[in-house]
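Hi R.,

Here's the chain you asked about this morning:
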Amino acid sequence: MTEPMISALTITLPDWLKERLATPVQIQGDEARMRFVIELARANVAHRTGGPFAAAVFRSDDGMLVSAGVNSVTRLNNAALHAEVVALMFAQARVGSYTLRAAGASYDLVTSCEPCAMCLGAILWSGVQRLVCGATRDDAERVGFDEGPVFPESYAYLERRGITVVRQVLRAEAAEVLDRYLRSGGVVYNG
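And the predicted structure, written out as tokens:
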């Protein structure tokens, strides 16, 4: 049996996240922004709408939230829909540009866990100028996720390309969401 050809994709946020983003959000500081992202990751686990990861794009200067994304791999049956990718896609759509570097402002991506290999590539080409991470690759792999070929050189490369990298912000809180997901029977879809 041959599956019919697909000519369009629709990427949606879960209903609970749409409701959460209905009012403007402005957050200053890496720890406060990370708390917001960890809250989204926790909610994604609680609502069973995807994996234990969340990310958000903020304008660097005033802390306005531009977009947020949660892992939607299992909800939308698409291995590319990691939280970082979803947040970056919605941010670029919102500013109307394929690069956040050309949008006339500077943007930060805050993510509940260090990015996998795929997401590092998306971050490189997205135009964000800062990357702020919570849990580590080791935390994700400890619960069974395969993060792919990510090396210390990967982060050095981002920095050489003008992206500031800040790691392990509220690591323990972010890692606890991964543990909660595993305890709840969440699917480890790439391990």
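The two ends are 29 Å apart (CA to CA).

Let me know if you need anything else.
M.
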